[in-house]
Amino acid sequence: MYESFYKLSSKPFQLSPDAKFFYNSRGHKRAMSYLQYGVNQGEGFIVVLGGIGAGKTTMVQALFDQLEDDAIVAAKLVTTDLESDDLLRMVANSFGLPDEGASKASLLKSLEAFFLKQYKEGRRVLLVVDEVQNIPLRSLEELRMLSNFQAGGVALLQIFLLGQREFVRTLHADGLEQLRQRIIASYYLKPLEHDEIKGYIEHRLALVGWQNDPSFDESAYDEIYAYTAGVPRKINTLCDRLMLFGFLEELHLFDANVVRMVTSELQGEISYVPQESPALPRQETKISQKMVEMEQRLCNIEEKVDDFSERLKSQRSLLARF
Description:
The chain is of the alpha/beta class. It has 2 domains: 26-189, P-loop containing nucleotide triphosphate hydrolases (Rossmann fold, 3-Layer(aba) Sandwich), CATH 3.40.50.300; 195-271, Orthogonal Bundle (Helicase, Ruva Protein, domain 3), CATH 1.10.8. The protein is built from 13 helices and 9 strands. The strands form 3 sheets. Strands 2-3-6-1-7 form a 5-stranded parallel β-sheet, with helices on both faces. It has a two-stranded antiparallel ribbon with strand order 4-5. It has a two-stranded parallel sheet with strand order 8-9. The termini are far apart. The model is unreliable at 276-296 (pLDDT under 50).
């Protein structure tokens, strides 16, 4: 909606990862260096962890764009709670191998044959496993077993593990000592620093043809950092809404006050809880209480009617005697 208003070629703050928008912050630059080091080593595990929305997926996509197609065969696997057999099927599928109906032994043979074929043709194989904190211990051990495949003393598969901080606890579990020994580098990707917010936002804007419209006051960057704590995905969410707000209000300058108005809207949307549903049980309770009261009143009326009927009978009998 706001792209044409600000004369942009596309949305600069989309939430879906796009390697084109990769910003080489101090933290991302160092994490990328670890990944590139791992690619050069061609063996072992590289572990990169970070909070939700830190930019790990975008960084890996940027790494893939740098790889030479004729030198490395790379695949990415986004995991959930996969048991070992299912994990092997996903790995095989990621490399384009048939997996339907195959036994575990068949899958391992197919993968080993694929790795050997790439080795003989002068290519190395790289597997990137994302959301690794969700993987059960048995499946992690299966990954380690895959890394055992060798030819001529050379590892046939290298694995990058990406995930959240919770994976640290998993790594220290009993039975994973062999996996820990094969980790050749690890890094924790932190959010952007305060002084990197401006560069990050202007980097994304410049890629879609931004000509300083809208412009950002320095106080706006302060407010953006205060709200997002430097998390790239949060910055994207806020700035996308900021651009939409600017379009609707026809603004060409964003300052702290404008950012605060947008963050207030976002916080209001998150904290808003509809009142209709909670009110239903209370309404039903009130109705049930009224029903009880009505029944009590009816009982009282019936007692009074019975008493009145008895009096009428006695009066009639007296009149009959006279």
